[in-house]
Amino acid sequence: MEEENKISFWKKIKISIFGLEDYQKLAVQKIGKTIGYIAKLMIIFAFFLSIALTYQFSTTVKNIRQYIQDEISEITLQDNTLTVTSKANPDEAIIIEDEKTLNGKLIIDTHDLTEEKIDEYTQQVKGYTNGIVVLKDKIIFNTGMTAVSSTISLNDILQQYNIVKLDKQEIINMLSNTNEWILYAVFFITMSIYLFIIYISTVLIDALLYSLLAYITGIFSRLRLRYSACYNIAVHSLTLPIILNLVYMIVNQFTGYTIKYFSIMYMAITCIYIVTSILMIKSDVIKKQMELSKIITEQEKIKQELERKEQEKREEEEKERIRKEDEKKRQEEKKEKEDSKDNLKDNSEKKGKKQRTPKNDEGPQPEANIR
Predict the structure, then answer these.
(1) Is residue 13 part of a domain?
(2) Which residue has the higher pLDDT, 240 or 68?
(3) Nearest partner of 266 among 285, 248, 290, judged by Cα
(4) How confident is the model at residue 355 (pLDDT cuts 50, 70, 90)?
């Protein structure tokens, strides 16, 4: 378990994409570590996407600077009100539709407009990779990354950057030389933070929905999974779709190339990873159960063999004990017989001695005097 908890970030990416058979190692991770993993992945995502957007932004800034010099007669920003007029048509809106530089549509109209006209402009920029509407008091933008239009008040921009007044020449100066690089740095940092917050929130919510799929799949496959394990599987299953989404968005920014059903492909890949990983975990569990069953069977055989040997040993010991008892008994009987013989011999000797012993009143017989 300690080894599983020490899986490095890059190894997690490798397992998430290529190691479906090792998803059980990711499933047992703590939720905090899983969220940390997806946070690191989204930092990388936001970093590279912000680089692509900043490069695209730099090209756009140069073209805007050139366009202002050549096509705009007046730009004034004062008292929270923006005024922009064209050299060719001062009383009409400026509409720029450029797929190469802007990769979208820009509408500038600083005249007094009705809400219906503003809604009309907002609808016109929808569907573009970059759609921007510049009004006298606010900026409305819509990108292919977000389905909802966002609005920034000019008053907020002026207060944030302490701007009191701007004119055409000051804007050209801001978009030139050292100020240009500062602008790019600010744009990069701002986009990195913005993209990180937007996408990590989206991914974490998506993971909640996909975790339900993982949980249901576990039920149907008769695999008991805790919800935390299902969530971990869902988060790591999003790794490849997130990387593909990053590549797609960068390509889209530079070429304008679009895949009509990319969102469906994004969902399909995630679902395939979730279902396949759970089925492989189930297969691995079954395999381990079979191995465990074999081990138990072998242990039972070994146990029976040990019991048999133990029984034979006890029988041998019992036989040896009986043999020793019989031997001891024979020895005792033999000893008793020998003792009995000795007693009989002693008794007979004593009896013989008693018969040969002279009486007290009998003297020695005189020898015959033979001459």
Answers:
(1) yes
(2) 240
(3) 248
(4) low
Indicate if the pLDDT at residue 30 is higher than 60.
yes
C-alpha 41/C-alpha 242 separation (Å) is 9
Do 128 and 107 form a contact (C-beta atoms < 8 A)? no
Nearest Cα neighbor of 131 from 99, 153, 84, 91 is 99
* Amino acid residing at 203: V
Q: Are 74 and 83 in contact (CB under 8 A)?
A: yes
How far apart, in whole angstroms, are the C-alpha atoms of residue 87 and residue 93?
12
C-alpha neighbours within 13 Å on the C-beta side of residue 151: 9
Query: Which tens digits make up the pLDDT trace of 40-49?
Result: 999 999 999 9
Laid out side by side, the sheet with 72-78 consists of 81-86, 72-78, 165-167
Token pair, residue 282, equals 């189930």
Predicted TM-score (pTM) of this structure: 0.64
Domain with 246 in it: 2-51+189-284
Encode pLDDT of 150-190 as tens digits.
Answer: 888 888 877 777 777 778 887 787 777 767 788 888 889 99
Return the structure tokens found at 342: 């000795």
Report if residue 363 sits inside a domain: no
Q: What's the domain count of the chain?
A: 1
Of 194, 241, 214, which Cα lies nearest the Cα of 17? 241
Collapsed DSSP state (helix, strand, coil) of residue 90: coil
In a domain, 234, yes or no: yes
Is there a domain that residue 151 lies in?
Answer: no
